[in-house]
Design brief:
The chain is of the alpha+beta class and about 210 residues long. The chain has seven helices and four strands, in the order αααβαββααβα.
């Protein structure tokens, strides 16, 4: 009986350890060679030299830690027609096609949304920005590492889908941030849930015996 009781605790904690190892970036910062490969992937189809320079700086300053991408979006009222979505498609249809690639790519690398919501009014405070009165959506996305972002966005399949995201938007701002306070880290929440559940099971079954 004692061995059964032990395994009831050990197996969930081993599974949690596996989750922790998968969810936590352990490979360290990107190497100079990886930075060059990433920049090459992002500039494969040309692009704004200033944007490519910002991408290079972002990867060169990699600290190996997770980060959060903040997205503020104004959807297009009349998006252009693209082959996969056809005539009459709305912005949400184009974004759905884009996310068909992104969801599996994100979730398989422990990247996931932290928050998403729709605007309930126009901007109440604007400083130094033109055309920022109207926004439709705000969202934040957790990335396990900058290396994971490269692997997701550097995949050739991403390029074929990204044009649908661009076509779905009138304007957007996306910038990375380093979390300083995040109370909803799944590693912490999941550990608390596992320990609470095991404590209840232990109290209800074995202690009664």
């Amino acid at each position: 009986m004692k061995s059964v009781r032990l395994w009831v605790w050990v197996i969930p904690l081993l599974l949690y350890a596996g989750f922790w190892l998968w969810y936590t970036p352990l490979s360290g910062p990107m190497t100079p060679q990886e930075v060059e490969e990433a920049v090459s992937d992002f500039s494969r189809d040309g692009g704004d030299p200033e944007a490519i320079a910002r991408v290079r700086q972002f990867f060169e300053e990699d600290d190996g830690r997770p980060f959060v991408m903040v997205n503020i979006i104004d959807s297009a009222d009349n998006p252009i027609e693209l082959p996969a979505t056809g005539p009459g498609a709305q912005a949400d249809d184009l974004l759905d096609h884009y996310m068909e690639y992104m969801w599996p790519a994100l979730l398989s690398r422990a990247c996931h949304p932290l928050f998403a919501g729709r605007s309930i009014g126009e901007s109440l405070d604007i400083v130094g920005i033109e055309g920022a009165l109207k926004w439709d959506t705000a969202a934040t996305m957790r990335y396990r590492s900058r290396r994971d972002m490269w692997k997701i966005a550097g995949d050739p399949r991403f390029a074929s889908r990204h044009e649908y995201k661009v076509a779905a938007l009138d304007k957007t701002i996306a910038f990375p941030v380093q979390p300083q306070l995040m109370m909803s880290d799944p590693r912490f929440v999941l550990l608390l849930l596992i320990l609470a559940a095991l404590g209840v099971v232990d109290a209800l079954i074995w202690r009664r015996r």
